[in-house]
Amino acid sequence: MTNEPDPASVTLPAEFFQRTDPNPDPQFYGEPRYVTHIDDATIEALTALYAELIPPGSDVLDLMSSWVSHLPTNIEYGRVAGLGMNEQELATNPQLADYVVHDLNERPELPYLDASFDFVINAVSVQYLTQPAAVFASIGRVLRPGVISIVAFSHRMFPTKAIAVWQQLSRDDRARLVASYHVLADGFDDPIFIDRSPEGADPLWAVIARRRDEPTLS
Ligand SMILES: C[S@@+](CC[C@H](N)C(=O)[O-])C[C@H]1O[C@@H](n2cnc3c(N)ncnc32)[C@H](O)[C@@H]1O
Q1: pLDDT tens column, 33-43
Q2: Is 154 in the pocket of ligand 1 (CB under 6 A)?
């Protein structure tokens, strides 16, 4: 027995998740943007991280996906599914076997069966989630036991759509915030933080957490 609060009973303050643009996300993401959101060298570092961590044959969910997933092209994965906001971007993404247009701020529950994936990846997008605790609980549900969530982030953002707290935090505190999403979801081992920033390009940071094999005993 400890005096630690049950993570499921902890809620982050609502003001963390306010945004300058409170309009529904489909308005903002209605038009496709065939751009990249980090420098080429940073994309290379992200692809190298995926190559290192995600074995061939894995079933991968690319959460908050677009026309690019940054997965290595020389590795054969199992199913690569994408979830994002823009149909045209997702339809153009050559790495996706299937995709769904789904607003996580409207419906944080992921539209996938339990234990469907070996990896959930989320690239440079976590700052747009307004209900992250519910989304990460659902990530825990769709991941198979013992497998991995990788949340990569950098310093660029759409400021009107990023949550208020993200804009106030240092890099280390952003990492702590993303780690806390996993902890509050209560289905993950302690997250780790890594820095894979290339020299002279946008930084690349990642929070990586392993879905627990067994529920925690209190
Ligand atoms: C900065 S882009 C990053 C896209 C891609 N992951 C990449 O690495 O280039 C942000 C992405 O988050 C997705 N997104 C934003 N708000 C979302 C929401 N409410 N629900 C689901 N996806 C969302 C958008 O569709 C967009 O593709």
Answers
A1: 999 999 999 99
A2: no
